[in-house]
Predict the structure.
Amino acid sequence: MTIEITTYLVYLSISIALTIWVAHTIHKNGRIFLVEVFHGNEPLADSVNHLLVVGFYLINLGWVCLALKLGYAISTAQEGIEALSVKIGTVLLVLGGMHFFNLLLFSRMRRRATMRHGHPPVYPDAFTTVEEV
Amino acid sequence: MLLTLLYDPSCGLCQRVQGWLADQPKLVELRMIPIKTEAARKRFPHLNHELTSEDLTAISDKGDVYFGPKAWLMILWTLARYRDWSYRLASPELLPTTRRVVSLISQHRYQISHVAGLSR
């Protein structure tokens, strides 16, 4: 097996493992947020959670595939590790970016949901009786 | 919750705002009654209706009365698109400015209506 092929295989296995780990974390911890956003409607929260994770997988694995090609020849193990490091670093940054984007989505959903049931912004000036006509 | 708005039908600006309000998506039902009418006096028998001609009045179905700038904030609060603005404008940092601007507009509503060509 050439050094290139080894580098590619190591790159793929590390990237895919990282993607699965982050997706699993988001899936597990995002659920609590979503259950609150949907007022305890757990089936709906699970469904949205699942759909978000699917999108996360698609974007990340798509990126991992597109970034696979090295574009230059490597001859030594040192060069292989350096190339690997650059590739994994990029994947980590993309994963980080996607992760924060997901957090942003969760917090925005939550803010919107809590605002819908919010109290009036000010206290009343006075009270009066209301007759239903 | 239901919010009743007592507005001045003789001011063109208020008419225009009322039309705009009717089209906005709402989180809380908003009902509009012209001030000092039979309907207003019947619904709020113990309210001082003379005061309602001085500034906009909003009253909840529980009898909470919001007057002037607070009534404006309550209207924003009923609107799905502007509820976050009602909280922002009611924050301690912005409330004084909100009061000033709203009072200014209220006091000069006839002039503004006239200048903007909204008076009838």
